[in-house]
Amino acid sequence: MGILRKLTIAVLVFAVILGAGLFYLMQGDTAELSVEAVAGTDPTLEEPAAESFPTVQIAKPVGWEDGQVPEAAEGLTVNRFAEGLDHPRVLYGLPNGDVLVTLTRAPAAEGDGDDGIIATIRGWVASYLFSEAGAGGESPNEIVLLRDADGDGSAELQQTILSEGLDSPSGMGWLDGTLYVANHNAVLAFDYELGSDAVLGEPRKLMDLPAGGGHWMRNMEIHPDGDRFYIAVGSVSNIGESGMAVEEGRAMIWEYDLTTDIQRQFATGLRNPNGLDFSPWSGELWTTVNERDMLGSDLVPDYLTNVPVGAQYGWPWIYYRDNFDRRVEAPMPRFLDTYTRNPEYALGPHVAALGLVFTAEGHRMGGDMASGAFIARHGSWNRKPPSGYDVVYVAFDERGNPIGKPVPVLIGFLNEDGTTKGRPTWVEWASDGSLLVSDDTAGIIWRTIAPESAPGVAISKLTGEPLRPQGELIDPRASFEEDYLRRDAGQ
């Protein structure tokens, strides 16, 4: 056998072995737990299994057929409130009953701090995944007004009211004649009167935001007092692999004071916060958060949690209070493990939790969903089998604490063959008490309601006197002995 032939055979054998190895690595990790097991107030957290290559299972969007609708929970009906929209994401209900929706996609990539072939490969992979998941292409950069003037549950008016000055817009808010819009790189304020069919005039920039990045959406929520708002900004990376310098100002929630025009970091260590709303029980800010990837199909669950001022949730070094991510190369801040908070409620691994609203006064979702939160789970790209692709309800007790497991509200987005009809993205209340859900890849806004239900009452806000400061030092043993003797005498 000639030397050339031997070399050819050796090369072919090597290629086969290399191909087989790559094929094995690309198979990814199959989940051993159900989504429900990794959800709730006490989720099962398995030992991490770090991946060299991410598990990839993308549900390619194929759209809804004429007349098709998601499957709603018992007692609910669902219909198309609006359709034919170009990638609708965030919904915002105005006080006069009009609904605004941002038509948006990721901004053009500008790099994440890396140079060279690694950045090129990462960008190519990200572009491919976006395209396969139905999120590729240029951002429409529009805000569309939806109006159901005749009250039949369908918006007969769909009109673009703003496109100038927008750059991958997400969150919105309206207050006293001003429409606030969060672009991926700044928060803008526009003059806008309710009922107007266009936003006129030049915007005013209130604050800059870290631009683009792996997580580009910037949701916002105005405080009920009307004197400040909050902005959610996600990280560039999975676990800081691009260096922590590019993460400055990211993986956190910002607060902006409208009376002083001063901004501050409100809470940190949140890899990718998205939905924001205020608890009707306590008035405290809550958020949904997308956690880290490449630790297997069962880790790490996305979550829903309260966000007190100064809160730290550990990203990228720690997840779920005391679980250390040994892959992180950046030095961990001293004592971080002593003040990292545990999320209140797990929503399942890789479900991509986005939009969030609490049960509101006047809702018409029925008595079984009268005290909790509604969350859009956009759906996984890196879990086998897929997770999310639904809208769920999380019940809260009378003290404002989440309980139980997520309850399906809308399902049927994911097909048995692994494709998807659409992907639920955001949730918002309509003025008639129905729940609106944006479906970005399908270009549809769904409306769901319990038609036989009366408008729900408001959740009672918790009240109570704060603990009075102790006026003198008292040995706690004395109080214990006093209580013990009192009970003993009573017996």
Characterization of the model:
The strands form seven sheets. Strands 1-21-18-17-16 form a five-stranded antiparallel β-sheet, with no helix packed on it. The chain has a five-stranded antiparallel β-sheet with strand order 2-25-24-23-22, with no helix packed on it. A four-stranded antiparallel β-sheet has the order 3-28-27-26, with no helix packed on it. The protein has helices at 3-26, 117-132, 336-339, 476-490; strands at residues 39-40, 71-72, 77-82, 88-93, 99-103, 142-147, 157-162, 172-175, 178-182, 186-191, 204-208, 220-222, 228-233, 252-257, 262-268, 273-278, 285-289, 301-306, 318-319, 323-324, 345-349, 353-358, 372-377, 390-395, 407-411, 424-429, 435-439, 444-449. The protein is built from four helices and 28 strands. It has 491 residues and is of the alpha+beta class. The protein is globular, with a radius of gyration of 25 Å. The protein has a single domain (56-108, 117-464), classed as Neuraminidase, CATH 2.120.10. The model is unreliable at 14-25 (pLDDT under 50).
Can you lay out the helices and strands and say which pair or pack?
Elements (H helix, E strand, L loop, with lengths): L2 H24 L12 E2 L30 E2 L4 E6 L5 E6 L5 E5 L13 H16 L9 E6 L9 E6 L9 E4 L2 E5 L3 E6 L12 E5 L11 E3 L5 E6 L18 E6 L4 E7 L4 E6 L6 E5 L11 E6 L11 E2 L3 E2 L11 H4 L5 E5 L3 E6 L13 E6 L12 E6 L11 E5 L12 E6 L5 E5 L4 E6 L26 H15 L1
Antiparallel strand pairs: 1-21, 2-25, 3-28, 4-5, 5-6, 6-7, 8-9, 9-10, 10-11, 12-13, 13-14, 14-15, 16-17, 17-18, 18-21, 19-20, 22-23, 23-24, 24-25, 26-27, 27-28
